[in-house]
Amino acid sequence: MSKLKEGNKAPAFNMPSSTGKNITLEEFEGKKHVVLYFYPKDDTPGCTVEACGFRDRFREIEKQDAVILGVSPDGDKSHQKFISKFKLPFTLLSDEEKSLCKTYGVWVQKSMYGKEYMGVARTTFLIGKDGKIAKIFEKVKTDIHNDEVLETLKALS
Q1: Residue 30: which pLDDT band, with cuts at 50, 70 and 90?
Q2: CATH match of 14-147 with 2.60.120.10
């Protein structure tokens, strides 16, 4: 699949979620902006900073008529512990097969200490009510990302 670009129709999905039911992109189309953020792993330092940042700005983001969906390869049990530990008020999607990560082009080869491995490239897709990708945030800085997303949502309003 070619790399997704701003203005492209966001790929549809139907994923298991922390709500206990599957979530589809279509259920938000025409109603809300979707902040679809991909992160490597529950309860790790960078991912916790990013999730807590979204938690802390949740009401403001919601006021911009947006919903936050976090995606990682972790399963539901891990997501439930992560949500409970940090009181996360938004839905997490389980992508254990990495199918959504691959569709959105965020399952990539990474390297750490000279060792190469496959993993999630921390990326956020802001999807408009029209179902198109309004903004892609790559190489996310976890400590300021929530502010960037909120500013972009305000600019779209």
Answers
A1: confident
A2: no
